[in-house]
Every structure is written in structure tokens, then in C-alpha cells.
Amino acid sequence: MKALFMNGREYKAEKPAQNETEYASDCLIVLVTFEPPDGDKQFKRLLKSVHKISKEFDTRNLVLAPFAHLSHQLMEPDRAKIVLKGLSIELQHQYNLVISEFGVEKGLMIDLKISNDNIKFRSF
């Protein structure tokens, strides 16, 4: 499991086929890639990092977006959707949560807050 954490001023993902837009502001954006060996250990480490980094960035607004471009070894899509759903269940009561849809064509706009530490990469 690999994740890119970003201190977002604004996140917007347009999905033209559905005529929908995902949107969040002043948020922690987490782009996450699920890999075949990922299990409970990686799941818990990701959750711990989300909690820690959201405190560092001082936000309760969270975007969780599947992002296959952080690894060349990808988990099977049906299993990855289950992991994403599990993460959303764990996080939904603690954060204002936006879950980016899995496997959908979308345009992406990310505006980051300016700081030396506004992007963090983690490999679990």
C-alpha cells in the first residue's frame, strides 16, 4: 500500500459521464494505491497516518482517492474496492469524508496550501 498525503486548499474531480463533481476544501487529500500483499497491517498503518497527518494539517476534511499510479503492482480491482469501502467505514465518523469513485474517468484539480511540508509519501 502506498499513499500520497497532500495539504489541500481545494480538491475537485469532475466526472463528465455522470455529470457529477467531487469537491472538498481545506482538506487532507490522500491518494492511495492498493497492492496485492496488502492486509490488516497496512490498513491499520494507513489509518494511523491519516489521523496523525490530519492533526498536523489541522483539518477534519478528508478526501480518500484510489490512485493506481503509485505502484506497478496493483491489487485486483474488486478486492481494492472492498479495502476502500473498509477505509471509508473506519473514517466516516471522524472526518468530513469525500470518497473518490473507483475506476471512473475524471478530470482532477488539486490546489495545495503553500508550505515546505505540504506533501508526504508513505509506503506501508
Give a verbal description of the structure.
It comes from Beggiatoa leptomitoformis. Residues 13-111 form the Threonyl-tRNA synthetase editing domain. The protein has helices at residues 40-56, 77-91, and strands at 2-15, 20-33, 61-66, 96-99, 107-112, 119-123. By secondary structure, the protein is α/β, with parallel strands linked by helices. It has a single domain (2-123), classed as D-tyrosyl-trna(Tyr) Deacylase, Chain: A. Strands 1, 2, 3, 4, 5 and 6 form a 6-stranded mixed beta sheet that branches. The radius of gyration is 14 Å and the shape is globular. It starts with a strand and ends with a strand. The model has no long low-confidence stretch (mean pLDDT 95).
Short description:
This protein is of the alpha/beta class. It is built from two helices and six strands, in the order E-E-H-E-H-E-E-E.
Question: Low-confidence runs (pLDDT<50, min 5 residues)?
Answer: none
Tell me, what is the CATH class?
Answer: Alpha Beta
Silhouette = globular
Supply the number of helical segments.
2
Overall residue-averaged pLDDT value: 95
Range of strand content: 35-45%
What is the CATH topology descriptor? Answer: D-tyrosyl-trna(Tyr) Deacylase, Chain: A
Q: What is the radius of gyration?
A: 14 Å
Helix content: 25-40%
CATH superfamily: D-tyrosyl-tRNA(Tyr) deacylase
